[in-house]
Each structure stands twice: as C-alpha cells, then as structure tokens.
C-alpha cells in the first residue's frame, strides 16, 4: 500500500499553467497535503504565474509573493510574526524554482537553515530559468541545451540536496511527480517535524524547456529516477540516509532520448553522462549503505 494522497482541494483548477505542467501537478500534491492552515511564500517564477494575483489565486490559502532572492527570509519572518502572536500551528511554506533556490535565493536559504527557522522550503526544480526563456541555472545538468548554453552546459548540476543535508537540518528529501505518493508522504513528514528548515527538492520537468510532449511529465520524472539521474531519498539531521527509489537498470540514453534539449548529444557524450550518473549513484550508495551497495 502506498501513501494515501490527501485531496483537500487547497489548490484549484483553472490556473494559468501550461497543459500538463509538472509544477502545477506538484503544487496540487504539496498544498493538498499541507492543508488550509498554511501560508505560502512564492518568488517570481512559474509558480507565481500559477498562483495568480490575489484575490484570483489558484491557491485557497494566503500567498505572499516576495522578491526572487528572499523566499526563505520572507517565510522565516512570517513564521516568527505568527509565533509572536501566539500562533504556533500555521505552516509556512516557501515554494520556489531552482533559479530562486540554487542561485539567487541560496544565501537566504542557507542562512535560514543555519538559524534553524521553523519553515518548510520546497524547490520545484525544472533545471533552468524556464519562466524567462529557458536560460541555464546551476541546476541545469551537464550537456543540456538552454538558450544560454546552445552547445550544451559545460558544468555539472549543483547537488543542492547534499548541500542542504550538510546544513544538518532536520529533514531533506528529493521527490518528483512521477512518484506522487512518495512526494505527498515526504511533504506530510516535513509538516510533522517542528523546528528547523525542512527542505524538499522536487524534479519538475518543463515541457517546453525540456522539449517533451504535454503528457510526458510524469513519465520523464520516472525515467530520471529509474536511470539513476535523480534518485529519491531522505536525510534526517544531516546523517541518517534512507533510499526510497533508485536505478532500475534503465540506461541514461533512454532518459535523454525523449528530450529535445539533449538531441545534439553524440554517443560519446551520452557515455560521459552515464559515467557521471554512475559516479553520483556510487557516492549516494556509500552514504545510504555504508559503502556496501544494495
């Protein structure tokens, strides 16, 4: 039996996301799990477009749209203000993209983690600045095409999961809409923990930016997991690792072949990507199983 996904309908249909948008699907699972006693903080991003201008928001909760660099700081401030008024029960969640998390908002996020702010921070990672025309971010993976890396990105993707785990926060997890019950369970777990930043990075394929059909979001997400590109795991207090879903023998070539952003790759390029994924998987196995593998 998988985790029972809640459907409180905190997130409404009729929003302005692209048909089949992975981020909209993720937001549905996230908000419906967190429930109505929640305040969301959203920076400029596709998420801000999806949430919409108040009072026409697709989110049936208060939404504070902050600056791109200040999501974690704004969420921390709102939580502290609530507590000062005697409200210690309302959940405050920041929902930001990879540009506002890996890059522009990282200083505020790292500082909030160091201060042990009582917030949930969720990064919807579509691996680029997709809202402004598909430019690269530090979440863009090796060799992927973006409008600012037309020959393919020359550097690997920043490992934000391990960076946040190294802050020794109470909870860090990776998730994706391809495994919705796993995503909802991790959001519920983050909600149940009191004190300290709880961080979840959710792989959310961008249909346009990645060059995949409208209905391929969940399928692409699953291939990312099954190929080892994006394993699903949890880290508690910086050192207790739990692997949820990992590679199932799917070659990286099967993952890249369905995406237009990789269509320039040569067989040698794909081999290099496979080797990179294998190295990363080996490192994660060592942390999850003490070097024993699985």
Task: Tell me what the structure shows.
It contains 11 helices and 8 strands. The protein is α/β, with parallel strands linked by helices. It has one domain: Rossmann fold, CATH 3.40.50.
Task: Give the structure's gist in a few sentences.
The protein contains 11 helices and 8 strands. It has helices at 22-34, 46-51, 71-84, 99-103, 106-115, 160-165, 180-192, 207-210, 217-226, 252-256, 267-289, and strands at 38-42, 63-65, 91-97, 120-125, 171-176, 198-203, 232-236, 240-245. The chain is globular.
CATH superfamily: Thiamin diphosphate (ThDP)-binding fold, Pyr/PP domains
Helix content: 25-40%
CATH architectural category: 3-Layer(aba) Sandwich
**Radius of gyration from the CA trace?**
18 Å
- Globally, the shape reads globular
Whole-number mean pLDDT = 94
Biggest sheet, strands in spatial order?
Answer: 2-1-3-4-6-5-7-8
Number of helices: 11
Q: Given this structure, which CATH class is correct? A: Alpha Beta
Largest beta-sheet details: 8 strands, mixed
Structural domain count: 1
Task: Briefly note the CATH topology name.
Answer: Rossmann fold
């Amino acid at each position: 039996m998988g985790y029972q996904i809640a459907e409180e309908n905190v997130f409404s249909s009729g929003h302005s996301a692209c048909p089949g948008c992975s981020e909209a699907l993720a937001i549905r699972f996230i908000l419906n799990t967190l429930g109505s006693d929640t305040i969301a903080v959203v920076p400029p991003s596709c998420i801000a477009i999806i949430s919409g201008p108040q009072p026409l928001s697709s989110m049936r909760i208060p939404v504070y749209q902050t600056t791109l660099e200040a999501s974690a700081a704004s969420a921390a401030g709102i939580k502290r203000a609530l507590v000062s008024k005697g409200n210690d029960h309302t959940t405050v969640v920041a929902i930001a993209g990879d540009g506002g998390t890996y890059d522009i908002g990282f200083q505020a996020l790292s500082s909030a983690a160091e201060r042990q702010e009582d917030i949930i921070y969720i990064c919807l990672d579509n691996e680029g600045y997709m809202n402004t025309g598909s430019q690269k971010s530090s979440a863009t993976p090796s060799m992927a095409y973006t409008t600012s890396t037309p020959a393919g990105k020359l550097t690997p993707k920043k490992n934000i999961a391990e960076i946040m785990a190294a802050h020794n926060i109470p909870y860090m997890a990776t998730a994706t809409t391809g495994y919705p019950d796993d995503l909802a369970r991790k959001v519920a777990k983050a909600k149940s923990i009191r004190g300290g930043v709880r961080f979840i990075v959710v792989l959310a394929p961008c249909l346009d930016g990645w060059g995949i059909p409208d209905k391929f979001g969940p399928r692409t997400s699953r291939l990312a997991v099954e190929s080892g590109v994006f394993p699903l795991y949890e880290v508690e207090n910086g050192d207790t690792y739990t692997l949820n879903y990992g590679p199932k023998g799917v070659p990286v070539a099967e993952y890249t072949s369905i995406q237009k952003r990789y269509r320039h790759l040569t067989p040698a390029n794909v081999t290099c990507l496979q080797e990179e994924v294998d190295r990363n998987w080996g490192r994660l196995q060592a942390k999850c199983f003490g070097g024993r593998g699985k």
